[in-house]
Amino acid sequence: MEEETFQIMKRPIERELTKVRTNFFEVTKLPKTKITHYDVTISPVVPWQLNKKLFACFSEENKKALGGVKPVYDGRTNMFTHKQLPFESKSFEVKLKKVNAPVANKRLPKIFKITIKKARDIDMNDLLQFLNAKGNMTNNCKMAINAMDIIISHEISAKYPTLRNSFYTPHGARSLHEGIEAWQGYYQSAHPTRGKMMINIDLRATTFYESGPLIQMVTKILGLRSSNDLRRELSVRDRHKVEKRIKNLIISDNHNPEIRQKFRIAKLTQTSASDTMFDGNNGNKIDVKTYFQNKYNRCLLYPFLPCVVIRKRKNYYFPIEVCDVIPEQRYMRKLNEIQTSDIIKFTCRPPSVWANKILASLNILNYRDNEYLKQFGMEVSNDMAVVNARILPTPTIQYHQSSRKNCVQPNGRSWNLRDKKVINGATLSSFLAFLNSKILPDQTIKFFVRELITTCQDTGMDERDPPICHENPIGDIEGSLKKAWLKARDKACGVKPQLILCILPNAGSYLYAEIKRISDTVIGVATQCVQNTHTRKPKKQYCANVCPKMNVKLGGENSFLIPEHIQFLADEPTILMGADTHPSFGYNKGPSFAALCGSVNVKVSRYAASIRVQRGDTEIIVDLANMVKELLKTFYQTCGLKPKKNLFYRNSVSRSQFMDVLNSELTAIKSACQSIEAGYRPTITFVVVQNRHHTRFFPIEGKNADKSGNCLPGTVVDMEITHPFEFDFYLLSHAGLQGTSRPTYYQVLYDENGFDANKLQMLSYNLCHIYARCTRAVSLVPPVYYAHLAANRARLYSFRYTDPESSEGGKNVAVAVKEELRKVMYFI
Asked: Where is the Piwi domain (predicted)?
């Protein structure tokens, strides 16, 4: 098949109905003249934080050589000036002054060499043409936008720890315990929009190590009230716990105030300071405690604690109490459950507070008095943009005709299953409790079973009295599941079990992952996991939440939309597809997991999945053609018809990869159709979906806000802050539960189905109401949500069937889910 090159779709024109505030700030004045771009090389090579320090010294010392220009620099290779420098290329020697950045000493040289070489002139007229839809996104435009990002961040990055487009401040930091704290951060980025440039400002948060005495951190890691509680040697377990937490931490010594040095921790000694020996100056062995007493007249308060071993330094031992933790060190490890809960509380703010904090950040950013912005002739408004928006009508959701209330119109709220029955309900087969009968007696399980069965029957599922098994959660999981499967089959007179409900002792991930791996890829039976805490006092609402998940895993359908609200799907046989890719859990350079989910019925209430393991260094789904072919066949086997239309939603694609993904994956979709039948060409619409962005909406009027203070579900924005001319929009499809809701961004890359903005926005919004796992509208269209769940499921099996190195080398592996499950939503 001849390779095609595709063009991204332009936006149809639509109308306005209401207004909302958004966290964009207009660039009211752009640089009128050319911006000059220079390449910067600093030798020897050091971390970018040190590059920034060196560059600041260089700028301060060479004002005359730079012709009075104050350049901006990204810390790596790019420098920009508002006019050309007096030279094309020149090298400078720079002496690094005091280093405050959290970088361990690496015997840095006293003199660094900075080479500056002109790269290009950036014509701002190209950017203006692009903003006004009179030109394409050229390399000149990209460099102009990149320059603006660096101009607005150059000054602030010299004052605060910076990570890409975000900077963080310790003001208002919250302790997360164990020597970790959450810092408030602010994101800022230049965005091209319709006719103007805007600065997108948002809130961020990340974790840092608490600075100060290392002994205090050790105290907090061990959960003690104060360092006075450190009265004896650490146990092996405690030593490992502390060592794991502080490994690679940068510290300074405090025993000699005149010469404070920075070091990186390699590990802890296995012996205490009193017992850790090394060769003294006279060749005799001496312990660390005695050495510090003799050399520095320092009597150690905690000689029973281990010493810090310095990285890449032989026989460098420091007692913990003479070490201080350097400020501004990010904590990169995974947070525990309590810390995760605490940081969620720290970041969870209602929309009014969120908006006010963004406005307050302007005092820190201080665009008006920023000397670099003034030099480049840039001005930024201090007012949040007010943009046009529409509020889409809520669709009607339909349940089984035998329901007392078979139609629901949520009006932006959640709803329940009271007086409603699901469609094509199926049967539960067995209960498997991974707790012994003393902890969770059969009587307790039977009480839960009765409540669950009653709820299932109320919602239209045909449930009976299933057998109960008790097994060891750290024993033979595969054997346990097979035993439950056989017991259920025997009770049903040889009929294969359809679903096993597993009761788990805790929220541990290993047991859950093993259950899913074995049931999906070894036995071929759907499983539903519940926590044992929910079985002791079963609540009707909890059971009602579990039943819909069980129903679709058994091939049933929960709800669907009336034909008028999915007219595009009802007119002709149409398949909805959602694609997503996820990285692996444990490998930095491991494989990624690609998932494709496709509807298998006309009402788009049931889906099937196809999953692959592939190289981890690509966003493109490598084996998409075969995956699409699988789902097209499943659709035909279920409906007896070939789809005439394909609406393809694609998640996890960065903007820089839009064209690569479009050209590769659209070709793969068309190739899959051709491989099924020559001349088979369903019309395709390819839409990228993103929810990792920094756009927020804030209602202006109370009537346009929900109970949480967020904009109403169905709020859509496709003007002012969107692309200058391409077909894109932001859709807030879900009601806020807590905090500030994030709308989902949709961009149409290719369209053969003739969508206008209203039709695609309405269809996407309506689909968000028939997500099978819950009775509320969700933030993502279901095919993408299902692909996200399927890719997550593939990661759970990953350690059993993938070799990260072979996968990284280009091997694509189909995940061997059993045939019995491939046509049902086992991944829910």
From this structure: 499-795
Q: Can you give the pTM of this predicted structure?
A: 0.92
Cis check for the bond before 44: say yes or no (omega within 30 of 0): yes
95 and 151 fall within a common domain: yes
| CA atoms lying within 13 Å on the CB side of residue 373 | 20
| 827 found inside a domain | no
Count the neighbouring beta carbons within 10 Å of the beta carbon of residue 369: 8
The pLDDT score that the predictor gives to residue 103 is 58
Do residue 198 and residue 234 come from a single domain? no
SS (H, E, C) 146-186: HHHHHHHHHHHHCCCCEECCEEEEEEEEEECCCCEEEEEEE
Sign of CA dihedral 621, 627, 629, 635: negative
Residue type, 721: I
Helix (H) or strand (E) holding 580: strand 574-583
- List of residues 6+ apart from 210 with CB closer than 8 A: 175, 179, 180, 181, 216, 217, 220, 325
Is 22 within the bounds of a domain? no
Check if the beta carbon of residue 532 is closer than 8 Å to that of residue 579.
no
- Asked if residue 182 lies in contact with residue 342, where contact means CB atoms within 8 angstroms, the answer is yes
Q: Is residue 773 packed enough to be buried (19+ CB in 10 Å), middle (13-18) or exposed (0-12)?
A: middle
Looking at the structure, tell me whether residues 524 and 590 fall in a common domain: no
Same-domain pairing of 158 and 288: no
CATH of the domain at 524: 3.40.50.2300
Residue numbers of the domain that contains 739: 566-803
Of 600, 682, 599, the residue nearest 638 (C-alpha): 600
Residues of the chain with pLDDT under 70: 1-7, 9-16, 98-106, 424-428, 462-464, 507, 585-589, 799-811
d(Cα 405, Cα 416) in Å, to the nearest integer? 11
Lookup: tokens for 538: 């079963």
For residue 806, the model assigns a pLDDT of 45
Output the six-digit token pair for 387.
Answer: 């943009």
Q: Which CATH number does the domain housing residue 234 bear?
A: 2.170.260.10
Helix, strand counts (H, E) of the chain:
20, 38
CA–CA dist 742, 723 (Å, integer): 18
End-to-end CA distance of the chain: 36
- Edge to edge, the sheet with strand 78-81 lists 72-73, 78-81, 35-43, 111-122, 89-95
Q: How far apart are CA 323 and CA 263, in angstroms?
A: 10
Measured CA to CA, the distance from residue 530 to residue 539 in angstroms comes to: 13
Tell me how far apart the alpha carbons of residues 587 and 535 are, in angstroms, rounded to a whole number: 36
Instruction: Count structural domains, the chain.
Output: 4
CA atoms in the 13 A half-sphere facing the CB of 615 = 11
User: What distance in Å separates the CA atoms of residue 17 and residue 19, rounded to the nearest whole number?
Assistant: 7
pLDDT, position 429: 74
Q: Determine contact, residues 254/300, Cβ cutoff 8 Å.
A: no
Q: Mark whether 605 and 745 lie in a shared domain.
A: yes
pLDDT of residue 402: 85
**Residue 794 counted as domain residue:** yes
Q: Exposure string (b/e) for 434-464, b if CB count within 10 Å is 16 or more? A: bbeeeebeeebbeebbebbbebbebbbbebe
- Is residue 266 domain-shared with residue 228, that is, in the same domain? yes
Same domain, yes or no: 572 and 631: yes
DSSP-H helix ranges across 751-818: 757-767, 782-801, 804-808
Residues 6+ apart with CB under 8 A from 541: 416
Tokens of 699: 């209602």
The reply to whether 549 and 585 lie within a common domain is: no
* Cα–Cα distance measured from residue 624 to residue 611, given in angstroms and rounded to the nearest whole number: 10
Locate 587 and state its tokens: 């490998």
Residue 812 within any structural domain of the chain: no
CB 432 within 8 A of CB 480: yes
